[in-house]
Amino acid sequence: MSEDKTLTMVTCTAPANMAVIKYWGKRDSDLILPINSSLSVTLHQDQLKTTTTAAISRDFKEDRLWLNGEEADVGHPRLQSCLREVRRLARKRRGGGDEDAAPLGLAYKVHIATENNFPTAAGLASSAAGYACLVYALARLYGVEGELSEVARQGSGSACRSMFGGFVQWHKGERPDGKDSVAQQVAPETHWPELRILVLVVSAEKKQVGSTAGMQTSVDTSPLLKHRAEALVPERIAHMVQHIRERDFEGFGQLTMRDSNQFHATCLDTFPPIFYLNDVSRRIIALAHRYNAHHGCTKVAYTFDAGPNAVIFALADTVAEFVEVVRRSFPPAPNGDRFLQGLPVGSASLAEELLSAVVLEPVPGALQYILHTKPGPGQRAGAAPA
Amino acid sequence: MSEDKTLTMVTCTAPANMAVIKYWGKRDSDLILPINSSLSVTLHQDQLKTTTTAAISRDFKEDRLWLNGEEADVGHPRLQSCLREVRRLARKRRGGGDEDAAPLGLAYKVHIATENNFPTAAGLASSAAGYACLVYALARLYGVEGELSEVARQGSGSACRSMFGGFVQWHKGERPDGKDSVAQQVAPETHWPELRILVLVVSAEKKQVGSTAGMQTSVDTSPLLKHRAEALVPERIAHMVQHIRERDFEGFGQLTMRDSNQFHATCLDTFPPIFYLNDVSRRIIALAHRYNAHHGCTKVAYTFDAGPNAVIFALADTVAEFVEVVRRSFPPAPNGDRFLQGLPVGSASLAEELLSAVVLEPVPGALQYILHTKPGPGQRAGAAPA
Known about the structure:
The structure is a homodimer.
Chain A: E1 7-15, E2 17-21, E3 26-28, E4 33-34, E5 38-42, E6 49-57, E7 64-67, E8 70-72, H1 77-95, E9 109-116, H2 126-141, H3 149-153, E10 167-170, E11 183-187, E12 195-201, H4 211-221, H5 223-245, H6 249-268, H7 279-295, E13 300-303, E14 310-315, H8 316-329, E15 340-342, H9 352-358, E16 369-373, E17 380-382
Parallel strand pairs in A: 7-9, 15-16
Antiparallel strand pairs in A: 1-6, 1-17, 2-5, 3-4, 5-10, 6-9, 7-8, 10-11, 12-14, 12-16, 13-14
Helix pairs in contact in A: 1-2, 5-6
């Protein structure tokens, strides 16, 4: 970055990710250190991404932030943590700790504008993409390179997993300072080319209990969460890594569903209990089990984050049939011409016996839309606008 | 019982019970031995009871059974277990094991007719009342006295808790033969005279996954259930006994709600997951928490068995106000003149600040009716019809 221009600006994009072994609960809420490791699939940015532009200029009077076009509070503690950490790394790497040798830009105020192409705070990990993008943009702006997941983690825990493409593990780490609580790629997005992802958007409403407050209450009150984190997750992580390495959809899908259910079980064991699944979510779960039972194997696997929307994993050759099953089970509203978004889906005709075994009591209008995507790469630098 | 009459007949009644520390999972499914101890409140028979008439006669050609007026399969293995056990005890007590000295009636066929005054298999423990009543009726018919909860347990696990009034613990026991897996009264129904119970009937539909199949799947697949049974329930039982002895509604109510939530959490951790709560159940849970939060203490406590109906515990001086809160939150259908059943409920007017804090988004018609009852006595012998 040259520092003699009046304006230095970078634009980056970052992906959302969907955990298949869930993160729920912090052991340190300042540093955002989790009580267990987690593992996620990075979603392709062609369908879901955050775009962030960050600029510094000697003409800027104060740090400012815009979220989806509206100015927001730049003083948010987590945003400030990320800013402070990136600036600290910039000083350290330029000057070996000598503040005088730091780049001139560090004295300038920053303007940040960020946009999602998907609904905010609806259980689609928008904060993960947002903080991953923010940290990457700031790092490029200040010329910082290397391991950044530890910084992104301090914005939003799951953001550290959006720093990589494909299949990503966030190691819980053991150190009190969090230096070993970092994300690591298990396999790149090219590893499992047949894997597809369907986001079934049940509701774009903001969730009633945010993740931060919810997981704190769970840590404080749920004995089942404590047991899960200590005794159950380590083995699940090891199994999931193996299923991914072997591209074993049966094992991957089964464990993905079990872990989603267990996460929501710990929410219910929280006091007062937290419910993220609603009756439509439960209908999708039952539908997936009927569909798999009909086929005699795991053809689709659901997972739900802190919201009612389902994320379905399937192999490419299952997508057309399952999408048709979903369309028959949740017939779109008459004006639902955008019911299917994202990657193209072929047409499928359903056998009568499949229909009668799997499609029971259709509920018109229960789904807003389906988004078809696949695993994708980590964050990317875009061209800086002129 | 004299054996020279052509017909010997007895009629008994038995109560339902509602667990506050839940039973879910067997370690032996033939003997019905549970993986954890449980604790329940016996509901008053003035509102919920099973009535069973059993008769023997030399003129009867075969054993026969009627449930709510319709003939049913008398060959059901659990019913046969109860019949066999009571007849075995009759032989043993009459003759010290000598079969020849057994009462003549043991050679006769039995006719059994049983009726519930509440919906069957809707999460209201109808099988508990049913088997408790059956075993008591058979025991009186054959002149068997003494400990019968071990026999009732072999009909339906929770039936053993319906053999006593008030507050009842079912000890899980340690022996493989189940001789120590018996029910015991913790306190009689007179112990806590202010305690009241409201059954909020959400749906009288039969449940989708029966308890027997559901709990077996949970034992086979839920690691959280295993942990709950082994590590969490023993302490909860001890605390619950203490709360009951001290008539500590705050402690009793808190633990009742937590244990209900944890039971449903283990259902969700089951694979495939089991859902007994629906969106109306969840609204009732949220309403109870808002109501308690408004009052700054635990005024009402919910618990849900294997179905969507809520059972609410409260002290007598809370009932009128909370019933009005429920009526405002779930306005009865226009023909809902039987909305409130059971013990009388006084009228209450709600303060404006209570209404605005607690009654949000009413859902008309979501509740069928409310049944007001209280803890009651164990099974009773009725007058034998002429």
